[in-house]
């Protein structure tokens, strides 16, 4: 569920993140994203969806702050992946620090304090984050976005701070390199998104196989869920397949409400 702290901060759950990302992707498809930011109706659509599906009292500011946190994730992880030797585990979506790399990692974090929070930290919605925020990083003011997203991340008690960047000509070259990396990452992520935008409708056999293997599900729930997903949208069933095993039943029960 949701917990509200001082200043109305919100603790986000993976389920909330998935609903938010899927709604924002739909808003992109519907043309509700301008140059560097979503249109007001996109934010409102996300708020309405979270309130409807999870009965949560979230606001547009909560949604905007969450997107700033994603920008922080994207900026820091892209920096690590591009300019260091540390390993990115694409299956688990995390920076994996091996024992033999611990000293080098600690030295890196001394110069880049915001990176320390990402040691073996899984970013569940990394692929969607690339699609949602990479283009903003490519066309917007990276420094300003980094500062804003860092503030939002601190609000959620995830820590982080910015580090100094080179000056003069080396700084310009670094910005050009980062711009090229951001554009490249966004292009690849958006290409994958377009491929998955219109996936084929699943067969009854596929739906049954996936649903019947969900941990803790009853036989009656299996039958109801199969009927629900066969008559529902492809995206709902696709989300079920992408969820971690311990969250699949929650998603099914939510769809059956």
Account of the protein in words:
It is built from eleven helices and two strands. It has 257 residues and is mainly alpha-helical. It has a domain at 204-255. It has a two-stranded antiparallel ribbon. The model is unreliable at 1-6, 138-150 and 156-167 (pLDDT under 50).
Which structural traits does this protein have?
single chain; 257 residues; mainly alpha; two-stranded antiparallel ribbon; 11 helices; 2% strand; globular; Myb/SANT-like_dom
Main sheet attributes: strand count, strand direction, barrel closure: 2 strands, antiparallel
Helix content: 55-70%
Approximate shape: globular
How many beta-strand runs?
2
- Radius of gyration computed on alpha carbons: 20 Å
Spans of at least 5 consecutive residues with low confidence: 1-6, 138-150, 156-167
> What average pLDDT do the residues reach?
76
Question: SSE layout and pairings?
Answer:
Layout lengths: L13 H16 L10 H15 L5 H24 L3 E3 L4 E3 L5 H10 L14 H14 L2 H14 L12 H30 L6 H9 L6 H13 L2 H9 L2 H12 L1
Antiparallel strand pairs: 1-2
């Amino acid at each position: 569920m949701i917990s509200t702290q001082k200043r109305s901060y919100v603790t986000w759950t993976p389920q909330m993140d998935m609903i938010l990302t899927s709604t924002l992707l739909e808003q992109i498809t519907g043309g509700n994203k301008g140059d560097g930011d979503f249109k007001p109706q996109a934010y409102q659509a996300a708020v309405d969806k979270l309130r409807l599906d999870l009965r949560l009292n979230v606001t547009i500011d909560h949604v905007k702050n969450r997107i700033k946190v994603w920008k922080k994730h994207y900026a820091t992880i892209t920096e690590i992946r591009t300019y260091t030797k540390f390993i990115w585990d694409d299956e688990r979506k995390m920076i994996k620090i091996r024992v033999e790399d611990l000293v080098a990692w600690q030295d890196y974090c001394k110069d880049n304090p915001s990176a320390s929070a990402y040691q073996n930290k899984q970013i569940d919605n990394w692929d969607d984050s690339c699609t949602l925020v990479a283009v903003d990083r490519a066309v917007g003011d990276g420094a300003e976005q980094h500062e804003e997203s860092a503030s939002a991340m601190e609000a959620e008690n995830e820590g982080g701070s910015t580090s100094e960047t080179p000056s003069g000509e080396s700084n310009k070259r670094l910005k050009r390199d980062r711009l090229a990396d951001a554009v490249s990452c966004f292009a690849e992520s958006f290409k994958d998104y377009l491929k998955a935008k219109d996936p084929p409708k699943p067969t009854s056999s596929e739906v049954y196989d996936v649903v019947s293997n969900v941990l803790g599900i009853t036989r009656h729930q299996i039958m109801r869920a199969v009927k629900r997903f066969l008559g529902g949208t492809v995206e709902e069933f696709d989300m079920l397949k992408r969820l971690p095993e311990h969250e699949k039943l929650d998603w099914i029960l939510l769809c059956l409400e």
